[in-house]
Amino acid sequence: MIRTETRRLRVVVAVDGERTDVRKGRQRAETMRALLDKGYAVSAVREPPADGEIDSETIVLGADALSDTAPETVLDTVRALGEERGLPEGGTWKPWFPVIDYQRCTDCMQCLSFCLFDVYGVDKAGSIQVQNQDNCKTDCPACSRVCPEVAIMFPKYRHGPINGEEVHEDDVRREAMKVDISALLGGDIYAMLRDRSEKARSRFARERDDERALKERQKCLIRLQQDLDVPPEVLAALPTGDEIRAKAEAARRRAEQHSPGERKDA
Amino acid sequence: MAGGILYCHCAYARVVPAETKSAVLDGLSGSGTEFDAVADLCEMAARSDPRLRELAARGPVRIAACYPRAVKWLFASAGAKLADGARVFNMRTDSAGQILEGLEAGDGTGKDATTGGAP
């Protein structure tokens, strides 16, 4: 699913360019915070648009409205106007999706091959792009961990360089060591899981110890979760090795079909 | 000043220290200066909010948000290219005092967003 452009209500507040007294300044900030917390944008401007120039996505308030009215009252008014105009307030979704640094990305397609949820796709020029952000699993930064160029960011992640912090050579070296995901657990993870499953099955025959086999599999998954900081629910949705290989092959074919095109460097 | 000031409230996560955000917003709203405050740049980028392109088109904007590399490519992901000279002040790492000083001075402090975070 490609993103669709959506707008939200913006509150425009008139300011006079003069430093306001502390009490009024605090109250104004308090009201702005209440609006921002609910997903509204606020603009402080010296020359608010004239009545005839105000579009349906804008509400204009005098500076005093923010400093002399209770924040909840302003919020209720804005909310009611937004509903009236069909512009919803912000949701509670934590915006969690990969952001690609195209100055670092080499279009190696490892992220596309690796992501289990089809977040990535290829544009007409054959370059990797984020196409289905909504599919991304909140708090899962696994694709950024397999990127050999440290080109994938999750701005709301706790640690650098995944959070967008500057990339150092050490980061590149460290990530390069992780590229071979199959090496993480001493071999192909899927083969390993399959193998363990088969071994466990043979043990079932001998010992009928399915509980032990399940524990082994869980141990293996927990280690993967720790190494990649992957949420458990993502691991619970792991596709088969064959599915992963088929996806990687399809991605490779798509990339080969396109000649290198214009980069998205900003 | 061309470009103006943009403050990101990072409303949907707790990665920016609340006290830094509060102090920066208090400082801006009490100063009487013109600025734009948005709820969350990530969320705007996720829904390709056209306002990001409008903000970027204004010129070298000064942004109080998070890491410059993240901010630059968030804008880019929404089809908005930040103008040369756009500066980013990082509320995850810098103090509110440093940020306010840089935002109001408009003197080229902060990190150059167009080089991906290099000073």
In short:
The complex is a heterodimer of chains A (266) and B (119). With 266 residues, chain A is mainly α. In chain A, 44% of the residues lie in helices and 9% in strands.
Any overview of this molecule?
The complex is a heterodimer of chains A (266) and B (119). Chain A is mostly helical and 266 residues long. Chain A has 2 domains: 10-84; 99-257, no CATH class. Chain A has helices at 22-37, 63-68, 71-84, 110-114, 142-146, 169-178, 189-207, 210-228, 232-236, 241-257; strands at residues 10-14, 41-45, 58-61, 99-100, 120-122, 128-130, 152-153. In chain A, the strands form 3 sheets. Chain A has a 3-stranded parallel beta sheet. In chain A, strands 4-7 form a two-stranded antiparallel sheet. In chain A, strands 5-6 form a two-stranded antiparallel sheet. In chain A, helix 1 (22-37) links the parallel strand 1 and strand 2 (41-45). In chain A, helix 7 runs antiparallel to helix 8. Chain B contains 5 helices and 5 strands; from the N terminus they run βαβααβαβαβ. Chain B has helices spanning 18-31, 41-46, 50-57, 68-77, 96-105, and strands at 5-8, 35-38, 62-65, 87-90, 111-112. In chain B, strands 2-1-3-4-5 form a 5-stranded mixed beta sheet, covered by helices on one side. The two termini of chain B are 21 Å apart. The interface between A and B is large, with 59 and 51 residues. Strand 2 (41-45) of chain A pairs antiparallel with strand 2 (35-38) of chain B.
List keywords for this structure.
heterodimer, A: 266 residues, mainly alpha, 2 domains, three-stranded parallel sheet, two-stranded antiparallel sheet, 10 helices, elongated, B: 119 residues, alpha/beta, five-stranded mixed sheet, 5 strands, 40% helix
What order do the SSEs of chain B take from the amino end to the carboxyl end, as H and E?
EHEHHEHEHE
Q: What count of domains describes the coordinates of chain B?
A: 1
Give the oligomeric state of the chains in this entry, treating copies of one chain as homo and distinct chains as hetero: heterodimer
SSE ordering of chain A? EHEEHHEHEEHEHHHHH
Secondary-structure class of chain B: alpha/beta
Helix content of chain A: 40-55%
Give the low-pLDDT segments of chain A. 179-187, 203-208, 259-263
- Rg of chain B from C-alpha positions? 13 Å
